[in-house]
Write a structure and sequence with these properties.
The chain is flat, with a radius of gyration of 44 Å. The protein has a domain of 70 residues: Alpha-Beta Plaits, CATH 3.30.70. The protein has five helices and four strands, in the order H-E-H-E-H-E-E-H-H. By secondary structure, it is an alpha+beta fold. The chain has a four-stranded mixed beta sheet with strand order 1-3-4-2. Helix 3 crosses helix 4.
């Protein structure tokens, strides 16, 4: 074989391998991009404007329903896009009373109030919750009657808890006298006291 034929053969083989590797990488990249686009499409990444009930249901915030006139629908849509509100319209089939329900979530409540104000609707007042009443006590709260007392007999009070002639009182007095005698004659110790 000729040397130039071998060199040409090596060049052709290397170029085929490089082309094959490039084609594989391109196809893998296209596959990953397609998977990414499909995932984004399924998640419905819309964050502003009209959406579906399914999309709003994924958000854990509670729903807010606001009634508007049907003729204000176009104005509301325009303002909602400007303010960045995610919403959808809800209406019962066959209900032609001229009103639409705008459903959004609590995260957009302040923005919805601003939109409603711009449309000329009154701003809804916050409902005040009634404070829970305290349960009535079983017994009336009055001063204790002298007949019943406060539960302590005079012998159980702190002043009369230890009788003067008890052995405990005698032992306590004896220990206090010993402690008083040892105090004046205390000698200093040579070691450090920590």
């Amino acid at each position: 074989m000729d040397v130039s034929a071998e060199a040409a053969d090596v060049v052709v083989r290397e170029s085929l391998q490089a082309t094959e590797a490039a084609a594989k990488l391109t196809l893998e990249g296209m596959k990953n991009v397609a998977a990414l686009l499909l995932a984004i499409a399924k998640q419905d990444m819309k964050v502003v404007g009209q959406t579906t009930a399914k999309r709003l249901a994924r958000d854990p915030a509670p729903a807010v329903v606001i009634p508007i006139k049907a003729e204000d629908k176009a104005k509301f849509q325009k303002l909602a896009k400007e303010f960045g509100v995610l919403y959808f319209f809800a209406q019962k089939k066959g209900n032609d009373n001229g009103m639409l329900n705008v459903v959004s979530n609590e995260n957009y409540a302040a923005l919805l109030n601003a939109i409603m104000q711009q449309l000329g609707y009154p701003i809804p007042q916050k409902e005040q919750e009634e404070e829970p009443k305290k349960a009535k006590s079983r017994a009336p709260q009055k001063k204790s009657s002298p007949e019943r007392g406060n539960g302590l007999n005079p012998s159980q009070t702190t002043a009369g808890a230890v009788e003067q002639d008890s052995p405990t009182k005698k032992k306590l007095d004896q220990l206090q006298r010993l402690a008083a005698q040892s105090r004046p004659g205390q000698e200093k110790s040579k070691g450090k006291v920590r």
